[in-house]
Amino acid sequence: TWTKYAVISIVGSMVAWYIFLPVVSYIGPAISSGVFPEYKGIVPMLWGNANFWLFIILVPFICNLRDFLWKYIKRMYRPLPYHFVQEIQKYNLPDYRPRMDRFRQAVNKVRRIQRLKRNRGYAFSQNDSDQNKIIRAYDTTMEKPRG
């Protein structure tokens, strides 16, 4: 995945190497103890060689070519569903399917209406039913039986 951190680390490591090599090859042998004597004079020989620059450009290209070709063939000739989604997001194509939030609102509205239409009875309704007769038959003035 090419994120900004991956690009910074790859390019940064290459830049660091191009800075590190001249520092080590010129300053290292010049120090009195001769820290890196084997690096003396390597920069003019290395950077003046056409093979070095050819390999710096050609080897990474060849190594990545297989991966790029594989991804190209896979996306162009055998795309997976998430490839389509990525292209829709990349090109900001309009989506003509109903939005999920509108769908949820419609479903909730239908459910509310269905709840309102249900017949709801009350445990103690105002008509003269059997429950009302039982309640009126209980005398509240009498003392509760003990035991």
Automatic annotation (TrEMBL):
GO cellular component: plasma membrane; trans-Golgi network
Transmembrane segments annotated in the record for this chain: 7-31, 51-69
One family name in Pfam for this protein: PhoLip_ATPase_C
InterPro entries: P_typ_ATPase_c (IPR032630)
Compartment(s) of residence: Membrane
Keywords, in A-Z order: Magnesium, Membrane, Metal-binding, Transmembrane, Transmembrane helix
Domain spans labelled P-type ATPase C-terminal: 1-79
Keyword Magnesium in record: yes
Topology relative to the membrane: Multi-pass membrane protein
Single biological process term from Gene Ontology: endocytic recycling
An example molecular function term from Gene Ontology annotations: metal ion binding
Coiled-coil intervals, chain numbering: none
Signal peptide (UniProt feature, chain positions): none
Listed name of the protein: P-type ATPase C-terminal domain-containing protein
